[in-house]
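pipeline: protein-struct stage 2 | run 1193 | ParA family protein
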Amino acid sequence: MAVIVFANSKGGAGKSTTALVVASTLAEQGLRVCILDCDPNRPLSAWKALAKTKTNLVVMDDVTEENLFKVIKEVADPRAGGYDHVIVDLEGTASLLVSRAISRANLVIIPMQASPLDTDQAARATNLIVQEEEHLERPIPYVVAFTRTSTAIATRIERTVRRELQDARIPVLDTHLNDRAAFKQQFLDGLTIYELDSEHVSNLAAAQKNARLFTAEVMTALTGEKFDAEAVMEEVA
C-alpha cells in the first residue's frame, strides 16, 4: 500500500482538486483507494456526502494528529479491505498532523499555481519535507505539480516559475493539471470526472485525458517506472 500526501499551505493551489482527480483516476482503473480528508474545510468529505458517486472511493474525515498512524495502519490491513493507495489531503498550515502525515508518505505532491506567491509556499512545503527527512534519516520523495494552467501555450510567468524551481533543484511534474470545467464540476455534482455527463460539461474528454496522463506521471514519481504517455493513451482508446 502506498501513501500519497498532498500538501500546500496556500489556499487556492488546487490541493483538494488534485487529490480527488488522482484518487478517482486510480479508482477508475480498478484500484482500491481511501482518502483521508485532513483539510479543516472538509472539501472531499462534502463531495462524498452528496452521495451521488458510484465509485468505490472511501473518504474518512475523523483523522487527527493523535490517531493518524493508527488509521493508516488500519486501512493497510487486508482485513479492512486491502487498499492499494491512501490519499491524504492535508490542512493548509504547518502542524503536527502535517509532519506526521509527511513522515508516513511514500510520495508528497505539492500542487501549486504558476505564481510567485505559490512558489514561496511550495518552498516552505519542501523545507518541511527536508526537515522530516533529517529527523527520520531517510529520503521522502516529493514533487511539485502545476495546477490550473492554461491549455494554450505556457505564459512567461509560468516559464519563469518553473525555471526557478529547477534552479532550486525542486522536482516538477511535466504534466500539468489544466484549468478545466470538469475539475470544478465534480465538486458541484458529487461525481468523479469519469461519471460526469459530456452533454453538460465542456471538453470532458480532454479533462479525462489530462487526468489520466497526470496520474500516470504521479505513479512514475511513486514507483520509479518510466512514464509512457503513448501507452496511457492507448489504454484510453
